[in-house]
Amino acid sequence: MLVLASLALQLAMGVVFFVGDAVMVLAYLLAWLLAVYVGQVVARTEARQNLDAFWFAVLGAATLSVGLALMQWLDVEGLNIFLLDMPVGARPFANLGQPNNFCTLCFLGCAGLLYFHERGVVRGTSFGLAWCWLSFGMALSQSRTGWLQIVCLVVGLWWLGQRIPLRVRRHHLVGMGIVFTFWVVTLPWLADALLVTAGRTLGEQMQGGVRFSYWLSMLEAVLQRPWLGYGWLQTGLAQQLDSASAFRVGIFDFSHNIALDAVLWTGLPLGLGIVFCFLFWTFQQFRRLNNGIAVMTMLALAGVMVHALLEYPLAYAYFLVPFGFIMGTLHGLIPSAANSGWGLGRRFMAGLAMGVAGFFAIIAHDYFSVENAVRNLRFESAHIGLRSEPVPVPTIRLLTQLDALMRYGYRDPGENISKEEWQKTGWISDRFGLSFVMFRYALASGFYGNSVGAKNTLEKICRVHNKSKCQNVRIMWSQWGKKYPFSIGSIDFPEVDN
């Protein structure tokens, strides 16, 4: 309810620029809600094999992904049809496209393995071999998040084992931690022996990077707009407005911390309210844990949340939906919790599911229409091909932010630009923060007679994006100035520190 209230308020106040962004937030919220409901229903039925099917799928996906990542790491040829190519010097990621996401999938596989161990299905040697394989995958990702997840696993089960009977004993936990540590320490040596890239050294993994500095700059941005925030999905706007966030690595779509994202997007009152509600629910479930299956389910939830506090796994539907299912499962596994809340009728939920399916179908149609049009617009913008007429922009029903991006972000503004066109170009510049969109907004401001706005936008490009993009923008601005000497040519490129 807090999310819906904040969406309605931000749309009414003009904080969110495009209805399409609210549509995407609503779509993710509905997908999560349905997953929570299904998880609770499955957990409350007597047919627990339904839960077995879910965890078997997770364990199978993680096991297979480790094999794919190993093939990426060893540069095995002939599998391009099944496996994404890994850039030279990169870390393995299987088919998830991102090493940390691959690590979290492996951790969920570990949680599934412990679930089956608790059910008495997997024991002894088979459990040990499976743990070695999955922990090797986590180490292979070279993710610092994996270290925290393993610490959470070992410490959490050690402590909970004191009050809840668990099949996994303390000596098992010690052995599991040792195996993971062994893989982490020996991976660089193994890479050298096999003459493959190590991705990054153990020392590099121990460095913090720019994440902490970025968090501080985003906290400063929160204080600049404490009440309503910057709008859902508009983290990039906060980065553009905050002069302290001069990392020159491009726009971050997320703050790499889900709690900070909530506060950035909705402001301090609603953001802290959303965070508090989740923490309160989590604390209630933790207090009510009374069996090993529920403990392993809570463990899986904790692993994803550790990742969400460092990056944005829940921005991916393939994590958000299982996360919601696990939340519902945890709620349904605990008797005192299962008897309260989530009491929605099955007919209502079935009708909601059908409505959501239609809603998603329209979104999918919009997306694929945009994908095809954007490809042609990029060719048009780069002057590739012999097209004599402009690329037609398809009719978009819901994803209005992408419609505006196609109309004003991929096409150069005209010298006689209208006020409406100038405003919408500014909206997509603030919303997306892409260098080519920001450059077109600077051009639009120059044509509209807003020289100060043009200079500010050019300065933002050089502050937010890398040096090569700044230099490229400088060259293009000079070229446009020669073509339009009385508008663009009259505006000097701002002095920036290169």
TrEMBL record:
It is found in: Membrane. It is a multi-pass membrane protein. GO terms for molecular function: ligase activity. Keywords: Ligase, Membrane, Transmembrane, Transmembrane helix. The keyword Protease does not apply. The keyword RNA-binding does not apply. This is O-antigen ligase.
